[in-house]
Amino acid sequence: MSVPSSHRPAWAEISASALRSNVLALKSVLGKTAFCGVVKANAYGHGIEPVVDTILEAGASSLAVATVDEGIELREAGVTAPILLLAEIPASSLPDALVSSLTLTVGSLAGARDVIDATRQATGTHPVHLKIDTGMHRMGVAPDDVKNVLDVLASSDHVDVEGIYTHFSVADGSSGDDRGFTRDQIEAFDTVLASIGPERRPRLVHLANSAGALGYERSRRDMVRVGLAMYGYLPSAWLAGALEEHHVTLTPVLTLRAKVVAVRRVSAGERPSYGRRRALEKDSNIVTVPLGYADGFARRLFEAGAEVLIKGRRHPLAGVVTMDQLLVDVGDDEVVLGEDVVLLGRQGDEQITADEWAQRSETITWEILCGVGARVPRVLVD
Amino acid sequence: MTTLGVGVDVVDVPRFALALERHPRLLARLFTDQERLDAKQRPERLAARFAAKEAVLKTLHVGIGGTSWRSIEILRASDGAPSVELHGTALELAERRGVTHLHVSMTHTPLTAAAFVVGLDERG
């Protein structure tokens, strides 16, 4: 395993082949429905630069981001595909968003008026997607206000209401309640859609995130917005059904790697790392790995029993995770300096997934992936 | 012969060079193999070609999302005169506007690159 050009042997390997295969797998499930690749939060921690070409080449017709800065970064990286901003933005940011040809989200009457003002001086037409709040209650126009907002948007020749969408809040849930709520959200959205009338109905109707796309066939319309699944993880295990029906699987795209930078023999009873939390039961080889909580290896993972892979085997941490390093107890295994360590990913027959970390640290897979630190180099491999 | 549009664009060369450095795959996203060959990796020449592509978009009255950068190719004849060749969606956009020919002129200093484009219907 070669180390990227960095002064510290710790990096995130981004697999282009896994990403490509995930996009193709999901597209086979989605059929004719267009694929919008969600690349917000630095492409869910994977790094925008390494992933964006593969996502588009594998057949995504557009991308989605959360902030104007993320959209500008994509444009500066030479990306010409449509880029949807998933949130309404402050009026003061609209000019920059328009210059970068970002597709705006309108989620309120005030937001619609801001867009009309901002496009007054513009040349050409600017695409806008209208977001409807069907139960998430984070942003979006209430169903009763949709007609008013559409009237405002229709008052300008510079605005093209290209899309209309909503967002699910429990599409990953498998309980009767969650399934029922998601169906209600679809129902509420369709009621809005029906009220609009065919001549004003936007061309791109989209409801589904990864969970919706896999769990609710009815939510696959003109487009779906796929985030987590594209990176090789399911929002929830029950969603695998749709993939199995099409005989496809997802593969995690990110592997977090490092190399051993120090090895020492430590006697039984010693207590490695800050806080001297746990005594070694027997004499052990203790290995230092140059990756810590500032890189996304959560400090609480020590108490939670996290393990790392060295020589294809799982080994426990020897002490609490520090900011820049962690310590591994490899027992009597002989480990040399420069030995490959896999923190997240596969080594030999063993695999540690972001789901495992999420479970141990009582969070969700999304947060684990987004948490891979900014200073960890992302290296694209095939 | 009818003039259907003009476009002009200026690119800050050091800023452009920095973007190329920051985004290792940007070069491949923006330029065709021939363009990269012609520019001999010189940032001011690449910047001039990029300015020309932006000027072509303006001439065709489309924004950044209208077509891929590589579908607008800036070529150089043996006598040094630059020309524009369109492919795919860029070609379709030009045809839709009735543009049969694009003329381009580029210039640069070490700090600034600029390009000017005229779109013509040469059938009439």
**β-strand number of chain B:** 5
* Relative helix content of chain B: 25-40%
The first-level CATH class name of chain B: Alpha Beta
The CATH architecture category of the largest domain in chain A equals Alpha-Beta Barrel
How much of the polypeptide of chain A forms β-strand, as a percent range?
Answer: 15-25%
Q: Biggest sheet of chain A, in brief? A: 8 strands, parallel
Overall mean pLDDT score of chain B? 93
Q: Which architecture name of chain B does CATH use?
A: Alpha-Beta Complex
What would CATH call the homologous superfamily of the largest domain in chain A? Alanine racemase
Number of domains of chain A: 2
Briefly note the structural class of the backbone of chain A: alpha/beta
Mean pLDDT of chain A equals: 96
Query: What global shape of chain A is seen?
Result: elongated
Low-confidence stretches of chain A: none
Give a quick set of tags describing it.
heterodimer; A: alpha/beta; TIM Barrel; Lyase, Ornithine Decarboxylase, Chain A, domain 1; 2 domains; eight-stranded parallel sheet; 12 helices; B: 124 residues; alpha+beta; Ribosomal Protein L22, Chain A; three-stranded antiparallel sheet; two-stranded antiparallel sheet; 5 strands
Structure, explained:
- The complex is a heterodimer of chains A (382) and B (124).
- By secondary structure, chain A is of the alpha/beta class.
- Chain A folds into two domains: 16-245, Alpha-Beta Barrel (TIM Barrel), CATH 3.20.20.10; 254-381, Beta Barrel (Lyase, Ornithine Decarboxylase, Chain A, domain 1), CATH 2.40.37.
- Chain A is built from twelve helices and 18 strands.
- In chain A, the strands form three sheets. Chain A has an eight-stranded parallel sheet.
- Chain A is elongated, with a radius of gyration of 24 Å.
- Chain A starts with 9 loop residues before the first strand and ends with a strand.
- Chain B has a single domain, classed as Ribosomal Protein L22, Chain A (Alpha-Beta Complex).
- Helices cover 40% and strands 31% of the residues of chain B.
- In chain B, the strands form two sheets. Chain B has a three-stranded antiparallel sheet with strand order 1-5-4.
- In chain B, strand 2 and strand 3 form a beta hairpin.
- The longest helix of chain B has 17 residues, at 43-59.
- The A-B interface holds A 49, 53, 75-83, 100-101, 123-124 and B 19, 23-26, 29-30, 61-69.
